[in-house]
Amino acid sequence: MVNASQRLPSNGRLSGKIYRLLTVLVNKSRSETKNRLSCPLIHFENVGLRYGMGPEILRDLTFDIPKKSFQFLTGPSGAGKTSLLRLLFMSLQPTRGLIRMFGRDISEIPRSELPLLRRRVGIVFQDFRLLDHLTTYENVALPLRVRGKEESSYKTDVLELLKWVGLGERINVLPPVLSGGEKQRAAIARALMDRPEVLLADEPTGNVDPPMARRLLNLFLELNRLGTAVVIATHDLALMEQVEARRMILSGGHLDIYD
Ligand SMILES: Nc1ncnc2c1ncn2[C@@H]1O[C@H](COP(=O)(O)OP(=O)(O)OP(=O)(O)O)[C@@H](O)[C@H]1O
Ligand SMILES: [Mg+2]
Hints:
By secondary structure, the protein is α/β, with parallel strands linked by helices. It has a single domain (2-103, 113-258), classed as 3-Layer(aba) Sandwich (Rossmann fold), CATH 3.40.50. The chain has eight helices and twelve strands. The chain has helices spanning 16-32, 81-88, 114-118, 136-146, 151-164, 180-193, 210-225, 237-241, and strands spanning 2-3, 42-50, 56-65, 70-74, 96-101, 104-105, 121-124, 198-202, 229-233, 243-244, 246-251, 254-258. Strands 7-8-9-4-11-12 form a six-stranded mixed sheet, with helices on both faces. A four-stranded antiparallel sheet has the order 3-2-5-6, with helices on one face. The longest helix is centred in the first third of the chain and has 17 residues, at 16-32. The chain is globular and about 45 Å long. 38% of the residues are buried. Adenosine-5'-triphosphate is lined by residues 51, 54, 57, 75, 77-83, 126.
């Protein structure tokens, strides 16, 4: 067992280059938020969620995601992990309760401002959501391209990150040709390029073998050590056993937290 604030001394060791890249990515986002460091990044108060006229699937959730925190979100299939991540990503509105993101009540934020706020949250979807007509490289670079960044300013970083997640040979391949695990790694790399303050990952090790799972976990831990809050939704007990971290357990619509 290691503490979430420590680096895993394993085969997933980060190279000097990737370490530098992560440091640059996180420091950029940190300096942008220097002035907002006093409140938790995310605050939920008595939050409930139902889809349409269905039953309430999340009930009375009250918790904080503190800055620089690392937590696993777990619970049986259908417990609402993905739904909770969607609330955290602001792609769903709660049906009751208060959600404060970066100090702001999201019910008071105009819809037009949400995309800007959402950029501060990186997400790796359970179903990857890569664009099939773009290559692996283009998918990962997309967040920077849509912001109008010059390719010369990010190309080396994208290639380095892709190499580190084991996709160095797959940069020019389209997603339909990638395996599930390869798509997953591309989706993780894309979420990291967006320099998030909070990284949400939905079953990020669901399609990879144990050594790669450990490597990805190491990447999440390193990001966290550099200051990014991380929430990993997972069923993977072996993964959770590797790190002594906060556990958020969803069951029957309720959330229990073990710090
Ligand atoms: N768009 C939707 N419309 C209606 N019901 C939904 C929708 N998305 C999810 N649900 C329901 O909400 C509940 C929680 O689903 P969710 O996908 O959040 O669970 P999960 O914990 O992520 O499950 P898994 O471990 O299988 O990924 C389930 O009963 C599901 O059927
Ligand atoms: Mg899910």
